[in-house]
Amino acid sequence: MPMNAPFPAVRIRDEFPVFRHHPDLIYLDNAATTHKPLAVLDAERDFYETANANVHRAAHRLGSAATDAFEGARHRIATHLNAAHADEVIFTRGTTEAINLAANSWGRANLRPGDVILASVLEHHANIVPWQLVAQQTGAVVRPIPLGADGNIDPAAFGALLTAEVRLVALTHCSNATGVLPPLQPMIAAAKAAGARVLIDGAQGIAHAGVDVRALGADFYAFSGHKVYGPTGVGVLWARRELLAHMPPWQGGGEMIDRVSFDGTTFAEPPFRFEAGTPPIAQAVGLAAALDWLDRHDRPALLAHETALRDRFEAGLQSLDGIRILGAGTARGPITALAFDRVHPYDVAQFLDGYGVAVRVGQHCAGPLHQWLGLNGSLRASFAAYNTGADVDAALAALATTLDMLA
Ligand SMILES: Cc1ncc(COP(=O)(O)O)c(C=O)c1O
């Protein structure tokens, strides 16, 4: 498509069969999971119809076709990430498993009593709890990176935490709860200069801002297929080849071994060392199709479209009383989180569902952030490629009616 043209959201919506089944759906829960375009559904179906077999071990032609499709997906994903090598892409079940892999493999091999892991207050539980578990096992400690009054991380305050004991910094690319975008570049540079490894949770960031892992400069990048128009059950941990070469396995089983005997087992090279058992084969093919689908679009125009929807939504909120936008004063992705003065967000979300408006309510697996905000929960609207200005206007009208009724 021509660059600099407005993003064709209305046409793109036709590529998502869910809207044929639910024509009135106003889906603003994209940070939880996105819907799937036909290109992804077709890729998975085509795999099952034409190439379904187990990978890497079959001595028959379908096994070769399956292996080619699966390894082809790894190459396409590596290209999308601008990774230096396809073997830097490890398939997992999703972001959660990717971070658990890093924590269990890299963490258990490298963390010692007294070492420090820094995780920001913005993090999803998936980027806190695996580090707490590995800290319990190794004697390391997990410390929070605090937020400034604007709800974002102050790089200077972060710099003050970077002592010689810090071995790993766990940071989100984009907060799933408030959409806040931490200042990654200066933070990654400072962490690396202090000798720490950096893991970026890209679950939200990859769908909006996109990622170039080499330009980003972090050590690990984790994301889920289902939040980037791909299937559930598949995700990726990317890490630099030199780092993976020294990481031990974390799950044992088939596929990840070199040779097994009761006298001792040796392990395969990365990425297979980290992929025990049958991997998510069709899902990996679907994920590659999702990233190809994204690459066929003008990414800056897509981000501008999603951001314009967020801004339209937030401008419309100005005429409603008793609503606060969380993190309003800092850089954010296309996510709006709201706190209400007089009504409970759960009640609001239920009424909105009655008007066909799907939003998320609760703590969004970001307990420490909500503790910092002093809130039991918030209501989140998150925007994606297929959302339109009409979606936003309908959501605003439903919200105005809801607040009137609950008043
Ligand atoms: C920022 C962030 N990290 C991690 C996760 C966990 O992703 P998954 O459940 O796909 O493993 C999510 C999901 O909401 C998320 O938004």
TrEMBL record:
Q: Which Enzyme Commission number(s) are on file for it? A: 2.8.1.7
Cofactor requirement: pyridoxal 5'-phosphate
Q: Which Pfam families match?
A: Aminotran_5
Give the Aminotransferase class V domain ranges: 26-394
Q: Which InterPro entries match?
A: Aminotrans_V_dom (IPR000192), Cys_dSase_SufS (IPR010970), PyrdxlP-dep_Trfase (IPR015424), PyrdxlP-dep_Trfase_major (IPR015421), PyrdxlP-dep_Trfase_small (IPR015422)
Q: What's the top EC group for this one?
A: transferase
Q: What keywords is this UniProt entry annotated with?
A: Pyridoxal phosphate, Transferase
Q: Where is the signal peptide?
A: none
The record's listing under CDD domains reads: SufS_like
Catalytic reactions on record: (sulfur carrier)-H + L-cysteine = (sulfur carrier)-SH + L-alanine
Family from the record: Belongs to the class-V pyridoxal-phosphate-dependent aminotransferase family. Csd subfamily.
Q: What is this protein called?
A: cysteine desulfurase
